[in-house]
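Worked example (supplementary).
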Amino acid sequence: EFRELTIRLSSGVGEGHPVVAGVEAMNVCLADRSGGAMKVQAFLGGALGGDLQATQSLRTGTLEMVVTATSPLVGIAPVLGVFDLPFLIGTESEADRLLDGKFGKMISDRLPQHDLVNLAYWENGFRNVANSKHQVASVDDLKGLKIRVMQNNIYLDTFTTLGTNAVPMAGGEVFSALETHAIDGHENTIPGLDASKMYEVQKYLSLTAHAYSPFLVLYSKPLFDKLNAEEQAAVKDCAQVGAKAQREASRKSAVASLAHIKEEGMEVVTMTPEEIARMREVVAPVYENHKSMIGADVIDAATAELAKMRQ
Amino acid sequence: MTVEIFLVTLVGAMAIGVPVAFSLIVCGLALMLYMGIFDSQIVALKLIEGADNFQLLALPFFLLAGELMNAGGLSKRIIAFAISLVGHLHGGLGYVAICAAVIMAALSGSAAADTAALAGILIPMMRAANYNIPRSAGLIASGGIIAPVIPPSGGFIVFGVAANVSITQLFLGGIFPGLLMAFSLIFAWAFVARRDKVQTFPRQTWVQRARAFRDGIFALFMPAIILGCIKFGWATPTEAAVFAAVYALFVGMFVYRELKPRELYGVFLMAAKTSAAVMFLVAAALISAWLITQANIPAELGSLLEGFEDSPRLMMFVMMLLVIAVGTALDFTPTVLILTPILMPIVRKVGINEVYFGVLFIMNNAIGLITPPVGIVLNVVSSVARVPMSAVMRGVVPFFLAQSAVLFFLVLLPEWVIAPLNFLRDRITFGEMLARMFGF
Amino acid sequence: MLRNLIFRTMEMLMVACLAAMVTMVFTNAALRKLSDYGLTLFGGGITVSEELSRILFVWLTFVGAVVVAGQWGHLGVETLVGKLRGRARIAAMFTSDILVLVCCAVLFIGTWRQAPIHADNIAPVTGMPMIWVYGAGFITSIGIGLIVVGRVFRVLTGRITDQELRQFAGEVDDPNGLPKGHVE
Ligand code: NA
Ligand code: NA
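After joint prediction of all chains, the assembly is encoded as:
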């Protein structure tokens, strides 16, 4: 039996982001399953607060859903730091197989203890380095660049290890700081870079793909427990349906955005596999430094599964 | 219906004397009850979240810089410099007031403090020189309100955080419109004071002017530091604010030596108290803003304004009228905090440039500081200058009209805000800026 | 006496917070600037400074909110209550105080109920449990609550002074010259 329910969903991404496609697909699915009783109402652009704060609202049971990257949440669930490790996931197909498989379930199973239910993995995308100074084609080119990173220890460590001057800075002032050259560069997904018009203030983009950032589709556990079995199943299944549409939209958008930012005059360089291998080597200590925080078993599980895929 | 609940509880609570910060919480509680989502944790979470923001640190730092400069004797040097330049003109002390107001606006964000400093020094001089005192008090009040429009500005910081608009761009965007406000005052003053029989100061020689400049150079240097930091990317607004505070401390203590070490505690405490009071308001506003968003109040209001959606200019005009109306009865910061979450979704939907809106919104709120019944700058000038409130209200009218004219001129010609901003952002050349402003 | 001691201590805490914020943000920015010119000290910046100064700012704000409340210095609109006289004014003050008390109670309960989720959320750089930040809700709710309970008690026992009533209606300038929450 389905009861009338409007599920409030918060996300920091703006209108036009691939997340919207995921929400739409999820809504079509929910309408179908529940006979129109359940629907998701999205509050985008951080209208209900930052992703970390919105996630805290989930844990207290004052908000139903959030679609968020993992990086802001490592303070709550240190295990999520595994996705911040540099150069872990190499390709989109690796990402899908890892997240939809045993490893993805392993991570999701660790979240209910923090009062969160992960319904599905959506996609934020591969993160790349952009800057306004010079083209970065090798790890040496990164030396001394002032790069804004998220307030996250693994990112800070990674970019310090790579020889940059890593500056933690809140999101709101990044564009202006880049424009006035208070900082030289930042790291971002391609659709994210396009949507925030960073191409206006960044000339060079290096496709470092130094991290694959998944989106968690989280539901408040206190509120999830109040749903009946049928409703729970519908929400879970429809989030998975949303995942398919969202990832597809995300990948299309990455291609379109890349074309668009080139049109806008950004110079894009692909890193050679040798250079990526070199960078991987340089940042190897980062894995060691954060092993105890993330959990050795988790890192090993991920690397083992990925090694199997790569054979 | 949610709009009515929102208005009735907020206005009702404020009317019976509940402090504005708590009125915002009361309003949030009522909205939660009405929407059936009452939960004490929303209040606790949103309140602290509202203050946990690095960008807002600029606020206590700029406040501290302002307090340090007041204690460090910078105002009187600025006024002496202005007298050396324009004191000899007919009605010269009026031009001195405008000139000093602009310089002080570029040093501090506080209209009340600037007005108090200006009135404290200039009104006795104007009295002695036979000026029309209510009119002079009105001029000083309207000169004081330039402070929030020219950076640094607490208003821009609070708005930038609440609306998620770049504070750097708001600061750069405020410079030219702030100067326009000053120009409008020059014209208004020249017109209303043209027949006044007043004494003028003797014209000063360039040597004397150079000496006045040298005496005030450390004060005059500060706007350059603040703007340079922001314009050339030497620092973010928060860092620029801390540089300003440390600079003011240094100048007050070691250059002018008017700031004694034992005064420091009091100065820090004053800045800390003011920023705590403001930040508590900012934090409380996040609770109601969260519920305003969930209750879809902007959409409800937006549907009322549907007819105007096709014309951003007309929408802008209507919103500015609303802000003027609210600003008569409510103080600056509460108006900014209450209206921002309601108006920003409309601004974005209609496609008005966010920085342009922010600049006009803050200018409008600044003008609200001199509109009765609630106009703190009127109170300040009335008590410092010892002029009855009713006289100040009469005296301020021509200048209020001049500044309102600037506001609505900018509603008609957005490029007069946007083109100078883009010039300062190195987006366009000076020639292109002129071409856009004058339409050729 | 005790009341005075508590307020003095809180004021000192505020000043210490502000001084520490200035020192940290200034040092961090200066180090970053110096590293631009090739002089890299302490790795060109102190990474904890951003997070720590933000935490201090929260404390400054919420301890400060109590101090300001102690001087009845929170910004209010006194247009209407200024026109009320006698019992009407007392009634408005009483109702207003009760509403503030309700807010304090809700804030206290909310902070209490969500303490666990903040206790196990670790600030990313300092590693400090966020209850050290969100726990500020306890100080504010208890502090302001006690101040207002005092005034309610004086109203109920008929010991409210004329001075207090005039202060409520905005008729007296604050003896401490507090600018009542104006940044503009
Ligand atoms: Na200013
Ligand atoms: Na007003």
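Two points are worth noting when inspecting this output. The pocket of sodium ion (ligand 2) is lined by residues B 327-328, 368, 371, 374-375 (CB under 6 Å). Residues 175-179 of chain C have pLDDT under 50 and may be disordered.
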